[in-house]
Amino acid sequence: MYQKEVNRRSPLRVFERSIHGGLGPGNIGLVMSRAGVGKTAFLIGVALDDLMRGRKVLHVNTEDTAEKVREFYDEVFHDLAEANELSDKNAVHLTVERNRMIHTFLGDTFSMERLQGALGYMREFMDFAPAAVILDGYPKWDTATDEQMEELKELAGKLKCELWLSSLIHRDGEEVDDRGIPQRIARLEKHISVMLRLRPTEDHVRLELVKDHENQDLADLHIELDPRSLLLAWR
Amino acid sequence: MSKAISDINKVRNIGISAHIDSGKTTLTERILFYTKRIHKVHEVRGKDGVGATMDSMELERERGITIASAATHCTWQDHHVNIIDTPGHVDFTIEVERSLRVLDGAVLVLCAVAGVQSQSITVDRQMRRYNVPRIAFVNKCDRTGANPARVCDQLREKLKHNSVMMQIPIGLEHDHQGVVDLVTMKGFIFEGETGEEIKEIPIPANLQAEAEARREQLLDTVSMYHDGLMEAMLEDRVTEEMVRAAVRKATISRDITPVFMGSAYKNKGVQLLLNSVIEYLPNPTEVTNQAVRLVDEKEEHFDVRVVPDAPLLSLAFKLEVSPYGQLTYLRVYQGSLSKGDFIVNQRSRDKVKVGRLVRMHADSMEDIESTSAGDIVALFGVDCASGDTFTDGHVQASMTAIHVPEPVVSLAIKPASQKAQDNMSKALQRFTKEDPTFRTGTDEETGDTLISGMGELHLEVYVERMKREYNAEVQVGRPRVAYRETMTKKVPFDYTHKKQTGGSGQYGRIIGELSPTESGDFEFVNKVVGGNIPTEYIGSVEKGFRSCVDRGEFYGFPVAGLQVLLQDGAAHSVDSSDNAFQAAARGAFREYYVQGAPTVLEPIMKVAVEGPSEFQGDIMGTIMKRRGIILGTTEEDGFTRIEGDVPLSEMFGYATVLRSATQGKAEFTMEFSRYGIAPSEVCEELRKVWLEKRAAKK
User: Where is the KaiC-like domain (chain A) (predicted)?
Assistant: First the structure.
C-alpha cells in the first residue's frame, strides 16, 4: 500500500467525518483514559497520520527523554507499516522524521514561556511551524486554571495549529459528572473543542466521543485501539 | 613469583567508565594508591608534571584524557581486582567495546555537578549491549553545585537505571567530609593528608531523618531480591547481610544500579567504593560468556566453563608496545595457562610458546607462573592481532566475534622524508593490529597512503601518535567520506562477449537481472537451467561481477547492495572459457549498471549536542545548516540535549563551529548510524568530480 492510501484508509478519516472535519486549527482537543490504556499511543497515531501527509507536528512531553518518545513513535510506525504493507517504508519514515520535532521538558522544567521560547527557536533556526502540537503532561488537571487554558487556546490560535492534550482518569473515588467526566476536567470544558475517552472493555479499547464542538448529537465512532499493536482500527 | 589465583570467587574484572571530565583518571589513581600499587598521588593535569599513573601514553597526559585501555591489577581485602581502563571519547568506541567484552562489571563515574552528560549516555548504551552490571560513583562532591541526589534521579530519568542511593553525603561542596552508609547506618569521614584514616562516626543529627528515608527507599527497591527481607522489614529485624545479599543479587541481574559517592580528588569515599566493588559486582563465575564453534559448517554458540581444568579458551583483547617488547593482554575464559605452555591462535593456526606470563600493575609488572579461568594477564612476544582467540590446540572455538564497524572516513597521508616513510610503515602496521576499525590502503589516483577510521578525531590521534611514538612526520590531506553507490531500480541484461581476432576466440552470453538489495551485501543467484551455461562457468560469471563492485561505474565508489540474477545464456564448445564469462560479466556490469539510476549513499552520523539552554537555538542552527534532521530535544535544569542525524561529510570542523556558536559551553558526541541516500545536488557534485578524475586519467 502506498503512503497516501494508508492515510486515506485510516480510521482517523472516520473520526474526522464524525466530528465534522476534524479538530480544526486554533482548537484544543483532549484525550482521557485511565493509566496505561493508551493515551500516548492514540496521540502518536494522530501525529503519525499528520506526519505522513507531510504536515509538521511538535510533540511536547514532560516525563520521558526525547529518545524514549522517538522509540515509541518508531514502534507505532513499524506496526502501522507492517499492518498496511507500506511500500517504501524507509522513505516515509524519513518524511516522518523530517516533519516531527520532539521536545521534552524533564524534572518540572516545563513552563509556557519555555515552550514559547522553544517554538521561537524552531521557527527562527529551522523554519518549523507545526500544524499540530501534542502536549502530553500539561496542564496538571488537578490545579489547572482558566488562565492556563486561555493561554493554551491563544497559543493554538497564534500558531494556527491543532493542540492535543491528555488527561489521566483515576480509578475511583473521584467526583464525576453524569457522563463520567471528572469534575476537575469538566470545569474547564468550555476551552476544549473535542473530548475523547478511551474505554477498555474485555479485549479491546473503545474510542468514545464525549464532546464534539457545539454538536449535541454525538456520533458513535466505531473506532478502537488494539491494545497489542497500539494501532487504531474500525470496529 | 606469585602463584595463580586460587579462588576465582575472589577475582573482580572491572571497568571504570565515564565522561572525560568526571574525574575517572583521578579515581583510578586513588584506587591504585589505596591498594598500595603506587605510593604517591598525582593530579591528572598535575602541576608536578607527572600525571596520573594509568595514563601510559604521553599524548594522553598532555590532553588529560585516557585513550588506550590498559589492564592493571591490584588487591583489596584479599581480592584480586583487574581494572580495565576504558576510554571516554566516543571516537574510540572500538576500544571501549573491546574492554567491555572482557570485564564482568563496571563503575560508572558521574560528576556530582554536571550529572549524566551526553557521553555517559553513549557509553551506557554500549554497556547495555554487553550486559555489564554496574555500580555508580558520584564524584566531585566537593565542587560547588554538587548534588548527588539529583544525579541519582538523572540516572533514572535519562538512562532508565533503577538507581538507588547506598549512601548520603556528609556535607557538600567545600564542607564535604564523608558519607553515611545506609546499610550499616553509620557515618564515615576521611582524615589524614590522603584520606587514609577512615573514622566511623554516628550519623550526624541533621542527617538522621534523611538517612532513614533513603534507607526506606533502598529497602523497598531491593526487598524482592531476598527471600526473607520483606518479612524481616515488617518485623523490623533486617540484618546488614540481608540487605547486602539483596543488593548484590539485584546488581548482578542488572535490575538496579547502586549509587555511591565521594570525591576522589579530596580523598573521600574511595575505599568504601572499593569495598562495594568486592561486595556487589560479580566474580567471573557469576556472568555468562559465550564462545563460537563450527558444527557442520554452522556457527554454534556455547557457554564457556569458568573452571581451571577445562581446555583453554582465551581472548587477546589488547596489544601494547612496552619498553620491554610487545605485550598482549589476555583474558582467560576457560581452563588454565602456565609458563612454557604451547597455545594456538585460532585465526592464523600459529602455535606459540608462552615465554613470559605477567600481571601488569600501573607502571610495573610481576612475573607469574600460571593463571586460570577468570583472570586477566599479559604475555610477552606473542605475534597476533587484537581480538584473536588462543586455545590449547584441542578446542576449535573462538570467543564471540567482537562487533567491528566499517570505517566511514579516510585521510591521505604523505611522509615528509624517507626516514619518516619507514617509520610510518612501522607505525601503521602496529596500529592496524591494535585497532580493527583503523585500516590502511592506497589511493589509486595519487599513490598516497590512505588511513581510514571511525571519525576525524580517531584519525587525528593516530597521526599524532605516529609523530610522537614513531617519529614519523606526515602531511595530512583533507578528510574524505566513505561514500557508496547503489542502483535504485531493477535492470534486465542480455550481454554477449565475443572476440574472434586471431588464435582461439572468446564467447560468452549471459542473460538476467541486476537489482538493488535491502541488506547492502552482494548477492549472486543462479537460476540457469538446462545447461545453457555450463556449470563450470557459473562461478566465472559470479567472479566477474564481484570484481566490479569495488568501484561503481557512475560515481567511482564501491557498490553496495547489488543482486545479480543469472537466468540464461549461451556458450560455445570451443570459444567459451573462464576468462570469456568473466569478461561477459564485466561487460554486462559496465553497460547495464548505469541504467539502474545509481545514487550515492553517504554515512549518516547520530549526533548529540549538549549545552546550556540559552544556546538551544544556536545549536539547532548548527545542525540545520549541516543538512541535519533534529530527532529530539530534551531540556533539564538549564541544560538542553539535542539529538539529530547529520551526514558525516558535513561534520568536519564541527567542534570549532560549535565552540564559537556557544562560547565553548556545549559539547557533542557522534556515532555512525547508517548509510542514507544523498540528496541529488550532492550526487551531481560527486558525479562531476568522478567524471573529471576519469577524464584526467585518459
Answer: 15-158
Q: Do B192 and B202 touch, CB atoms closer than 8 A?
A: no
- Does any CB of chain A come closer than 8 Å to the CB of residue B645? yes
CB atoms within 10 A of CB B101: 19
DSSP B158-211: HH---EEESEEEES-GGG--EEEETTTTEEEEEESTTS-EEEEEPPPGGGHHHH
Smallest Cα–Cα separation from B103: which of B247, B341, B271, B315? B315
Please tell me if residue B161 touches chain A, with a CB cutoff of 8 Å. no
Which DSSP helix (H) or strand (E) runs through A195?
A: strand A194-200
Q: Which residues in chain B touch residue A104, judged by CB atoms under 8 angstroms apart? A: 632-635
Distance of CA B484 to the CA centre of its chain: 24
Question: Is the separation of the CB atoms in A60 and A134 below 8 Å?
Answer: yes
A100-105 and B629-636 beta bridge pairing? parallel
Interchain contact, A106 vs B634, CB within 8 Å: yes
| CB atoms closer than 10 angstroms to residue B554 | 21
Q: What is the pLDDT of residues B269-314, one digit of tens each?
A: 888 999 999 999 999 888 888 888 777 666 778 888 888 888 888 9
- The candidate with the shortest Cα–Cα distance to B268, out of B139, B75, B143, B135, is B139
The range of the structural domain enclosing residue B570 comes to: 488-597
Residue B134 in domain: yes
Domain that holds residue A85: 3-234
At residue A202, the pLDDT reads 77
Among the listed residues B104, B66, B101, the one whose alpha carbon sits nearest the alpha carbon of residue B82: B104
pLDDT-flagged residues of chain A (< 70):
1, 18-21, 171, 227-230, 234-235
Please write the tens of the pLDDT for every residue from A123-180.
988 889 999 999 998 999 989 999 999 999 999 999 999 999 999 887 677 788 888 8
The Cα of B474 is separated from the nearest Cα of chain A by a number of Å equal to: 40
Asked if B641 and A68 come within 8 Å (Cβ–Cβ), the reply is: no
* Distance, CA of B455 to CA of B649 (rounded, Å): 11
**CA distance linking residue B30 with residue B37, whole number of Å:** 10
Which residues from chain A sit within 8 angstroms of residue B633, using beta carbons? Answer: 66, 101-104, 118
B620 contacts in chain A (CB < 8 Å):
121-122, 125-126
Evaluate whether residue B686 is within a structural domain.
no
CB B632 within 8 A of CB B679: no
With CA atoms as reference, the chain A residue closest to B633 would be: A103
Measure the CA angle with vertex B410, ends B408 and B416; round to 5°: 165
User: Quick one: how many helices (H) and strands (E) in chain A?
Assistant: 8, 9
> Chain A closest CA to B48's CA: distance in Å?
42
Contact criterion met (CB < 8 Å) for A103 and B153: no
The model's pLDDT over B224-277, given as tens digits with 9 standing for 90+, comes to 888 888 888 888 888 888 889 989 999 998 888 999 998 888 888 888 999 999
In the predicted model, what is the mean pLDDT of residues B593-621? 90
Is the Cβ of B624 closer than 8 Å to some Cβ of chain A? yes
Do B17 and B129 lie in a common domain? yes
B343 CB neighbour count, 10 Å cutoff? 22
For testing contact with chain B, the best of A64, A65, A90 (most B CBs within 10 A): A65
Q: What is the number of domains present in chain A?
A: 1
Flag whether B404 is in a domain: no
B420 domain-assigned:
yes
Among A149-158, B17-26, B136-145, the range of highest mean pLDDT: A149-158
What are B432's three cell numbers?
A: 592496524
For residue B622, the domain's CATH number is 3.30.70.240
Question: What CATH number is associated with residue A50?
Answer: 3.40.50.300
Q: Are residues B527 and B670 in the same domain?
A: no
Q: Which residues are CB-neighbours of A58 under 8 A, at least 6 positions away?
A: A100, A101, A103, A119, A122, A128, A130, A132, A133, A134
Note the residue count of chain A.
235
Task: Say if the ipTM goes beyond 0.95.
Answer: no
Coil, strand, or helix at residue A52? helix
